[in-house]
Design goal:
The structure holds two protein chains of two kinds. By secondary structure, chain A is mainly alpha-helical. In chain A, about 65% of the residues lie in helices and about 10% in strands. In chain B, a hairpin with a 2-residue loop joins strand 8 and strand 9. The two termini of chain B are about 25 Å apart. Classes of the chains: A mainly alpha, B alpha+beta.
Chain lengths: ~110, ~130
């Protein structure tokens, strides 16, 4: 099985505003909290807090540049989370196909 | 995460399909894992995959020939002996008699919004039960 993303990633992504922050970050490229807040309906402080949570989950990385902190998306954990969820659906497809084969075979034996 | 919904129609009655969902020996044939499952509310289960990973579960609801509901505990044991956190999703399998046989529907989803205080508390409690 693939490396499982942690609960922290799902928890971080469960919040709508944090998903907006991620989206804004992927559109704008590396940005500061102030730069991101300009395009979002929340305060700079709120954006900074969400960026902190996203950084804790490993979804964004923070780099200090002088007096500013620049955030950017770290694509790997995000891809893992998305592919884990996609795999979950694919696994049920396989299981239900196998269940069908099993039931058909059992019925033939009767 | 988005809920996962799948369904399949089987050429057998719900009475014939039910054991395939609840007898560990039959589950192990199609689930892709060796399954131990105590099919009653509160019953424990362990799913062991061929790659050595292992995931515990708890049965939440059983309505014979109609509905089986279990919850994954929020982690799996890796082949190397470590643990990896996973969302504690709930799997609900429902059977409906249809003219062609039985429609089996699977819904796997988070039982409540992840990230809520309640979800975190729930996960902690489940993790404690699982040790």
């Amino acid at each position: 099985m693939k490396r499982a993303p942690t609960d922290r990633i799902f928890t971080a992504l469960a919040d709508g505003t944090r998903r907006q922050v991620i989206r804004a970050l992927s559109e704008q490229g590396p940005s500061t909290a102030t730069g991101l807040a300009a395009g979002l309906p929340v305060t700079r402080q709120a954006v900074a807090k969400h960026l902190g949570a996203l950084a804790d989950a490993g979804l964004v990385t923070a780099t200090r540049r002088g007096r500013e902190v620049v955030y950017q998306i770290s694509p790997r954990p995000l891809t893992d989370a998305v592919s884990w969820m996609a795999d979950l659906g694919a696994r049920w497809d396989e299981r239900l196909a196998a269940l069908r084969d099993h039931v058909v075979a059992a019925r033939r034996r009767r | 995460m988005d809920p996962i919904e799948r369904e399949v129609t089987l050429p057998a009655t719900p009475r014939e399909v039910w054991p395939a969902l609840t007898e560990p020996g039959e589950l192990s044939v199609w689930f892709g894992a060796a399954v131990e499952l105590d099919v009653r509310p509160g019953g424990r289960g362990v799913f062991r995959w061929p790659d050595g990973t292992e995931r515990p579960a708890v049965v939440e609801a059983v309505e014979p020939e109609r509905r089986l509901c279990f919850r994954w505990l929020p982690f799996q044991r890796t082949a190397a002996g470590g643990t990896a956190a996973l969302p504690a999703t709930r799997v609900e399998i429902t059977l409906d008699a249809v003219p062609e046989g039985t429609r089996v529907r699977v819904l796997e989803r988070e039982p409540f919004s992840l990230g809520s205080r309640r979800a975190r508390t729930g996960n902690r409690m489940l993790a404690r039960i699982g040790t």
